[in-house]
Amino acid sequence: MELSPRAAELTTLLESRITNFYTNFQVDEIGRVVSVGDGIARVYGLNEIQAGEMVEFASGVKGIALNLENENVGIVVFGSDTAIKEGDLVKRTGSIVDVPAGKAMLGRVVDALGVPIDGRGALSDHERRRVEVKAPGIIERKSVHEPMQTGLKAVDSLDSLVPIGRGQRELIIGDRQTGKKTAIAIDTILNQKQMNSRGTSESETLYCVYVAIGQKRSTVAQLVQILSEANALEYSILVAATASDPAPLQFLAPYSGCAMGEYFRDNGMHALIIYDDLSKQAVAYRQMSLLLRRPPGREAFPGDVFYLHSRLLERAAKRSDQTGAGSSTALPVIETQAGDVSAYIPTNVIPITDGQICSETELFYRGIRPAINVGSSLSVASGLPLS
Q1: Residues 114 and 226 occupy one common structural domain
Q2: Which range marks the domain in which residue 49 is found?
Q3: Same domain, 204 and 330
Q4: Which residue intervals define the domain ATPase F1/V1/A1 complex alpha/beta subunit nucleotide-binding in the entry (predicted)?
Q5: What is the CB neighbour count within 10 angstroms for residue 1?
Q6: 367, 125 in Cβ contact below 8 A?
Q7: How many structural domains comprise the chain?
Q8: Are residues 35 and 103 in the same domain?
Q9: CA distances from 235 to 86, 163, 191, 207, 309 (A)
Q10: Interval 193-238: pLDDT, tens
Q11: DSSP readout, 86-133?
């Protein structure tokens, strides 16, 4: 039976309408908040969520899924949980936590999620990188052979026992108020201006990433002023998770700073990443783990606190010539109590790193700045031919 021209036209029209019906719809998996408190939300219904995936609450606050349990998911909230209440909808974002990276980040001050907090507007052209990635494999690496000049005589002297190479992990350890941050870490960043001016190519420039964890906002503001006055911000990125920020942001900040530094390493350039300090990150992680009801261990730290730092510091590497020959050098800072380097966190981080620079209170009070005890400090690069 043949259709009339009018009927055929209507049939074609209906077919086209049906074909294009709801073609742009989006399906989101959502759950509901069962309980919330102390920055932790228990959510029911997110059966397909990934570990470390970002979620968004109805109030716009975001969080990260850390505990995947049979009945519910433990979500750590990035921000205040006062706007979240029982029964609220929670939506999966489908993406693991990532941050912006690239040269557009230079000279900027951002939080642990890469959001600018310096009042200079949004970031320009940049790419996104996951905060948690696997460290480079053995084949992708090359032995440390290039020196990283810090500008400190106690470190860079030819007769010194603690030289640092590009791609190395050198721990800075000591009591508070002994110049760990000011006399060693910040001076190293400031001294790179002279080192970078000598370079003949961009591949010789050392870009710096400073991660401030659990510090006062006034301290971070003072640091920004110091770097600005010395024109050191032009090759530096500041990642700040201050003492007033929630524990999840203090936990996340080192990984975010590492991801930003890895952009330079993976593109044939060189980066220096300073983590100030990892003791406060461990305390923030302990707080999160206890609230998530994970079994506590020594000093109430969770059992994976060693892995917390090892997976971070293992990402510092000198890449092989086949993979770009870039490098990322890590200078983690650990604060001790009364010079006790045998405490839990220091003894965890010391075997992960390639040596340590020890600062002592007694030397500091005697007017020796930086207060480095060369006898207690060491570096595996001291036996390597750095050229």
Answers
A1: yes
A2: 30-95
A3: yes
A4: 155-379
A5: 2
A6: no
A7: 2
A8: no
A9: 46, 23, 12, 5, 26
A10: 988 887 667 778 899 999 999 999 999 999 999 999 999 999 999 9
A11: TT-EEEEEEEE-EEEESGGGTT-EE-TTS-B-SSS-S--S-EEEESS-
